[in-house]
Amino acid sequence: MIRYRAFARTANGRSLGLALALTLGACLAPGSAPASADSAAAGAAATPIKIEDDKGNPVSLAAPARRAITLAPHATELVYAAGAGDYLAATIRGSDYPPAARQVPVIGDGMQPDAERVAAVRPDLLIAWQPAPAQALTGVMNKLGVPVFYSDPLTLSAVPGAVERMGVLFGTEAHARPAAQALRDRLAALTSRYAGRRPVRVFVQAGLDPIYTLNNSSIVSDALRVCGGVNVFGHAPIVAPQVTLESVLASRPEAVLAGVTGPDETAANLAAWQALGLPAARAGHVYGVDADMLYRPGPRLIDAAEQICADLDRLR
Asked: What pTM was computed for the model?
């Protein structure tokens, strides 16, 4: 049976309750910044940068970042997708994609970063996800004069723009712009291909013991929408509510979607829902998508959306 623990881990945090309340890639073969991007970055080395983050805060840098720290796995994926992986000085535990990110020094847990280790890195930019973890570093960042950029894409369509803004922060626009456009093209193709398909009612499983789900404000639900899926708890009043088995059965989902760590977990989910008497499970319509791809608001979520669309189309 899938446990909520995996959901919380991949949602950029250690605390289950906080990850739930906050809700809660790179699909373009990310790697080191290419020579052309490095040349462009060198030419822009002295160019001041002014940009707005996802919280609406103005962020200013005297020059493109060269020793950045990411406090969330999805932010790490965005940096690499923008061709700026070489400019990461440190990250947090769990930032494991792309493979090159596993070689970046770790400064602690995403929910409780180590302020002393952060200061020792001497960063020139901190890329955070949610304000609570970053607040523990505010004093250190202010003392060092390090700007904080909050990255929190809320929809699939926001992901390409997030890649482009990483390109601005690091001066790697020559790499980031075409990478972002490729993502937009894939998303546009998905939207066009599945427009007008019969809606499919889906239960989004964020936890099974106890049962949790996600509402329409989650980026996961947005991916489902692109595929013609209808989140049966989309209008729940909170982002990640705990629900009863009776309410799931009463919602009559045609399919179950969950983030998983592997095929065995999908098989366990299927068996569990069959035992609980869910008709969709008896028909075999319980689907699993790699949890890191599904729950991290980064480029790989478009990969996840492509898989979800294909699964729902087979059901149709």
From this structure: 0.85
